[in-house]
Design brief:
mainly alpha, Arc Repressor Mutant, subunit A, 9 helices, elongated
């Protein structure tokens, strides 16, 4: 390998490392302080870089957050959809999978999931690129859940009286709310696994067709 190639590889590795460090720091700062109250200076300084490095890699604070949303969507939302697609069971099995897989990713990548939730609050009804991006991300989740619910109603797994759009919204609200509650109280005060199971059973089996409820023959 020539020296020129080695220099290029080293430069690429340094670039990747800097972007990763800045992204990780930005996730934490934006979640802790909120996007509008955060500064690029504190993000850069937290990893020993200059504010100029952020402008070099991302051009602006807005583009930095868009980059974070892209990461969170790939790691959390896309992974969730792949998991749901791989579940061979019925609609209830997929809805259970939504709660468990989503919560697991929230615990593994709390700042990424919290960034999605917080951005959806801070940029509610805003028509700028960030507002449009977060709406698009959540719209994908709504659509997938609504499809699962509709199929469950058609197949007789879910009660036909279930309001599809509203129940999908309730599922997302409880999922995001569980994450916020776990984050607010901390793992030493509340058992995340039991919280997820409690919400799951309360939410899902209340809408299940009689024959699909626990203790009933399927």
């Amino acid at each position: 390998m020539s020296r020129a190639v080695k220099r290029l590889n080293k430069k690429a590795a340094l670039r990747e490392d800097s972007i990763q460090r800045l992204s990780d720091a930005a996730f934490q700062v934006f979640v802790t302080k909120g996007y509008h109250a955060s500064t690029l200076q504190e993000i850069a300084e937290s990893v020993g870089l200059t504010k100029g490095a952020i402008f070099f890699y991302f051009a602006s604070k807005q583009k930095l957050l868009l980059h974070l949303l892209e990461i969170a969507e790939a790691n959390i939302v896309d992974s969730l959809f792949s998991h749901l697609a791989g579940i061979r069971g019925n609609a209830l099995d997929k809805l259970v999978g939504y709660y468990h897989f989503g919560s697991m990713h929230g615990i593994k990548r709390p700042y990424q999931l919290l960034c999605l939730i917080q951005t959806s609050i801070e940029f509610r009804h805003r028509a700028d690129p960030i507002g449009k991006r977060i709406v698009a991300i959540y719209s994908r989740i709504y659509r997938v859940l609504e499809e699962v619910i509709e199929k469950g109603k058609t197949n007789g797994v879910l009660a036909k009286t279930v309001a599809t759009r509203e129940f999908a919204s309730m599922m997302i609200a409880t999922h995001d709310g569980m994450m916020l509650e776990w984050w607010r109280r901390g793992k030493n005060q509340i058992d995340g696994r039991i919280l997820v199971e409690t919400v799951r059973d309360t939410m899902l089996y209340g809408i299940a067709a009689e024959s699909m409820r626990p203790g009933k023959a399927r």
